[in-house]
Amino acid sequence: MTVRRLSDNIVNQIAAGEVIERPASVVRELLDNAIDAGSTRIEVVTSNGGKSLVLITDNGAGMSHDDLQLAVERHCTSKLIDDLSAINSLGFRGEALPSIGSVARLSMRSRLRGQETGWEIRVEGGQIFPPKPAALTEGTVVEVADLFYATPARLKFLKTDRAEANSITDVVKRTILGHPHIHFSVSGNDRQSSEYPALIGEDASTKRMAQVLGEEFIENGLLIDAEREGVLLKGVSSLPTYNRGNALHQFFYVNGRSIKDKQITGAIRGAYMDFLSRYRHPVCCLFLEIDPALVDVNVHPAKSEVRFRDSGLVRGLIVGALREAIASAGHRSSNEGGRDMLGAFQLQDTSVQSSVQTGHSSNPSRYQGGGIQNHNWQQSPFRPVQDVSSNSPSGFGESPQQGFDVTAAPSADIREAGDVHYQQALPLGAARAQLHENYIITQTDDGLVIVDQHAAHERLVYEKMKAQMARDGINGQMLLIPDIVELPEEDVNRLLDHADGLQKFGLSIESFGPGAVAVRETPAILGEIDSHALLQDLVDEIGEWGSSDLVSEKVDYVAATMSCHGSIRSGRRLKPQEMDQLLRDMEATPNSGQCNHGRPTYVELKLKDIERLFGRS
After folding, report:
1. Mean confidence (pLDDT) of the chain
2. Closest CA to 144 of 268, 43, 251, 56
């Protein structure tokens, strides 16, 4: 076959297939150009998800007559000379504008700073029209209309207007977060108008996060500020209990460039491995500053991926900084639970309240004269807990649980035995009651705390297992009579393939004929456990890792699975001393604010919030 040179228009359309995937790609490229031009104010207008119109206006340096002509030609740029290792701008390839012009109707008006006249140039379906004078203040206005009209096949692959508008919103949001010193205005017939004023000062980045991601993110965030071998990492990452079902709420920047990189995502996931299940993701906004010579941004035409010369250094910095921040948070937990609970109270139907106040109710026997009928409340199983300083009977109605005479837990942290006031001054307070055999109610000096006993103890056991393993390994507890666990043959084979690795955790298993496993030892730290349930969960974990992975590479997952089976179960009634001991252990254990799956182990309500519910404030 004869080799032929492709026409410039076809070359541009092929390039557009890589650079301009959808309307959001157009917005990103134009925003990059506006920022590189030194703009302090940028306006974004879209219509019909960007298919009909994308309009970007900036007050940057602008372009001259000659600059406009070159800007719409391939590989013409003002941001790069001859060194790809010294890229300090967001754009540099010189492909975006000619690519857009080859598949849409492109119009650019610009006035160079200091010049009296502006100029306009148009490109439609690859055809370039000569520049002509235009009235314009300093800056540039870029209008992209009828995207992909010149390539109808591409147009058919776009999603609905709403989906494309959402994709544009994500691009704009990432740009706004990365440049707090710029004023952004976003509007159009496919969205609500929004203004993001420019911010200055050392806390400008944090304030911009609050603008875009909400104050709740900052309240539940951990400040990140780390450095290793000249590489800087700053930003905010959420507490493990403040998480989402996908990674769309993770924002990462390299030298101001927003990127989506699997390596970075994996590092963030690795840092939270101890605290979140594989289906939950932290929220974060992180900024990496690195020598441009140590990072390659010319990996993909979309410029959303990068390659680091020393990827191990970057990963280690991210994982180390995040883990250190999480550890420094101690037992701190997200405040989402308390807010949700307050919201649930406030959204309750007010008919019951009004019936009490007026004396009307569907159950007249319960109310009399606008108040609760005076019956023998002392015989009620729901009567309130008595004052611990009183000699009167305890407030627990069920006889199997002992009276709640609060005493100090056998812990070195308690200085004075039975000093309730001292316990209330501690972060998690003094235990007052247990509800539904799972939730411990505690009183603090300024509110109350509700603790999930199973989730809390699961974290305590997990941390203890990790510490013991790091120190001298986990001891096994020999069973007098081995547990015989029947499982499908393929599951038995998976377990036996990893028997040596499980032995390090104090779990000794061996084959017991086809379709069965004999459990000889279990981790001593877990006490009595359900061997069948434990092995079934381990089989599920190993099945997901794949047969090539060793258990030793998944130490945290194995420890987390075992600790879940060795923790206090829901439905177990605790003695007062056990409750207080659990609270004191939580206060002394890092990361006790969340269980191994990222759920909070406790929620807190401040007294002022409770009083607000009753109209006392």
Report:
1. 79
2. 56
- Among 316-325, 353-362, 543-552, the minimum mean pLDDT is found in 353-362
Amino acid at 568: I
State mean pLDDT over 557-580. 74
Tokens, residue 37: 């031009």
Higher pLDDT, 62 or 8: 62
Contacts (Cβ under 8 Å, ≥6 apart) of 181:
40, 198, 199, 200, 204
**Is 103 in contact with 147 (CB distance < 8 Å)?**
yes
* Band of pLDDT at residue 343, cut at 50, 70 and 90: low
**At the top level of CATH, which class does the domain 204-328 belong to?**
alpha beta
| Confidence bin at 556 (pLDDT 50/70/90) | low
Instruction: Indicate the burial class of 557 (C-beta count within 10 angstroms; 0-12, 13-18, 19 or more).
Output: buried
Residues 6+ apart with CB under 8 A from 144: 26, 30, 53, 54, 55, 100, 104, 105, 106
Q: In this structure, are residues 290 and 228 in contact, taking their beta carbons and an 8 Å threshold?
A: no
CA distances from 131 to 89, 405, 422, 555 (A): 26, 88, 79, 65
Mean pLDDT check: name the lowest of 75-89, 127-141, 312-326, 481-495. Answer: 75-89
User: Which residues does 234 contact at the CB level (< 8 Å), separation at least 6?
Assistant: 205, 224, 225, 226, 286, 287, 289
Q: For residue 541, give the nearest of 363, 399, 533 by alpha carbon.
A: 533
- Tally Cβ neighbours within 10 Å of residue 12: 26
- What are the φ and ψ backbone dihedral angles of 413, each rounded to 5 degrees? -75, -20
173: left (phi over 0), alpha (psi -120 to 50) or beta: alpha
Length of the chain: 617
Q: Give the whole-angstrom CA distance, residue 114 versus residue 403.
A: 84
Residues in a beta bridge with 122: 107, 129
User: Alpha-carbon distance 416 to 395, whole Å?
Assistant: 24
Looking at residue 388, what is its pLDDT?
38
Give the architecture-level CATH label for domain 8-81+88-196.
2-Layer Sandwich (3.30)
pLDDT digits (tens, 9 = 90+) for 385-423: 444 333 433 333 333 333 333 333 444 344 444 566 778
* CA-based nearest residue to 30, from 123, 126, 107: 107
pTM of the model: 0.64
Q: Are strands 439-444 and 430-435 parallel, antiparallel or unpaired?
A: antiparallel
Instruction: Give the angle subtended at the CA of 597 by the CAs of 593 and 603, to the nearest 5°.
Output: 35
Q: How many Cα neighbours within 13 Å face the side chain of 541?
A: 24
Lowest-confidence region among 329-333, 337-341, 436-440, 475-479: 337-341
pLDDT number for residue 476: 82
Tokens 């972060």 belong to 427
Q: What is the 3-state secondary structure (H, E, C) of 477-512?
A: EEEEEEEEEECCHHHHHHHHHCHHHHHCCCCEEEEC
Distance CA 490, CA 493 (A): 5
What is residue 105's predicted lDDT score, i.e. its pLDDT?
Answer: 95
* Class of the CATH-defined domain 404-617: alpha beta
DSSP string for 273-289: TTTS-TT-EE-EEEEEE
| All structural domains of the chain with their residue ranges | 8-81+88-196, 204-328, 404-617
SS3 577: helix
For helices 161-178 and 204-213, angle between their N-to-C axes, nearest 10 degrees: 160
Show the tokens assigned to 100.
């857009």
Cα separation, 549 vs 177, in Å, equals 38
